[in-house]
Amino acid sequence: MKLGSNGAEVSRLGLGCMGMSFAYGTTDDTESIATLHRALDLGITFLDTADMYGYGANEELVGRAIADRRDEVFLATKFGIVMDPRDATKRGVNGAPGYVRSSIDASLRRLGLDHVDLYYQHRADPDVPVEETVGAMAELVEAGKVRYLGLSEASADTIRRAHAVHPITAVQSEWSLFSRDIEESVLPTCRELGIGIVPYSPLGRGMLTGAAPKNLAADDFRRTLPRFNDENLEANLALVDEIRAVASRYDATPGQVALAWVLAQGNDVAPIPGTKRRKYLEENAAALELQLSADDLAALAKLTPAGARYPDMTWVDRSTAALD
Question: Which of 24, 53, 99, 280 is catalytic?
Answer without folding.
Answer: 53
